[in-house]
Write a structure and sequence with these properties.
There is one protein chain. With 192 residues, the chain is mainly β. The chain has a single domain, classed as Roll (10 Kd Chaperonin, Protein Cpn10, Chain O), CATH 2.30.33.40. Helices cover 4% and strands 47% of the residues. It is built from 2 helices and 15 strands. Strand 8 and strand 9 form a beta hairpin. It is globular, with a radius of gyration of 18 Å. The relative contact order is 0.17.
Length: 192
């Protein structure tokens, strides 16, 4: 099968997050998506590119998405038990954040960036604030990686719309990882 236009064909395993590594233990967590109150942690966010069409993806790349895209039956071509084949546009109109690199890191695409949120501890000369009590500015971050088509670059401090950063939770080889993603269209300023 070959995709038409700007679409790609993907394949994903609905059970991809059912095995996790916790320290030296490998745990099997069946129905993790249905049991976890945070859907980003429970539902699939990675899919293998079966046919890249005319997109910047290559065959067998692992594409990363928001947790809601892969659960859309209207995009499905077929389902064989827990393996779903589907088609999606790869022109940036869907929330495709990028692909996974050789070390499992997110390589942003479609003008997206990976950021580190900036923590600010309350200022005091007497009290040392533990990490859980630090104030996190939900609209400010340092770029860790930027898409090649983005006008931003690694190391820049950016300001973005409040709540527009997305914590991408993905699982690679049984290890849970996260990356904070921001679309370039949601960036409102750069600090100098």
């Amino acid at each position: 099968m070959k995709p038409i236009g700007n679409k790609i064909i993907l394949e994903f395993d609905t059970d991809q997050k059912e095995t996790i590594i916790y320290g030296s233990l490998k745990l099997y967590v069946p129905n993790r998506g249905g049991l976890n109150e945070n859907a980003r942690i429970g539902w699939a966010t990675c899919a293998r590119v079966v046919h890249p069409g005319i997109s910047p993806f290559k065959e067998n790349d692992i594409a990363v998405f928001s947790h809601t895209i892969l659960d859309n039956p209207s995009c499905w071509i077929q389902r064989d038990k827990n393996i779903i084949t589907l088609t999606l546009p790869a022109d940036g109109s869907e929330t495709i954040y990028g692909k996974l690199g050789d070390k499992g890191e997110v390589i942003p695409m479609f003008k997206n960036v990976v950021v580190k949120r900036i923590d600010e501890a309350p200022q005091s000369e007497i009290i040392i604030t533990p990490d859980p009590y630090k104030k996190v500015e939900p609209f400010k971050g340092i770029i860790l990686a930027a898409a090649t088509d983005s006008k931003y670059h690694e190391g820049q401090t950016i300001l973005y719309y409040k709540y527009s950063d997305y914590e991408l939770c993905y699982n690679i080889n049984g290890e849970d990882r996260t990356a904070i993603m921001v679309k370039s269209s949601d960036i409102v300023g750069v600090e100098h």
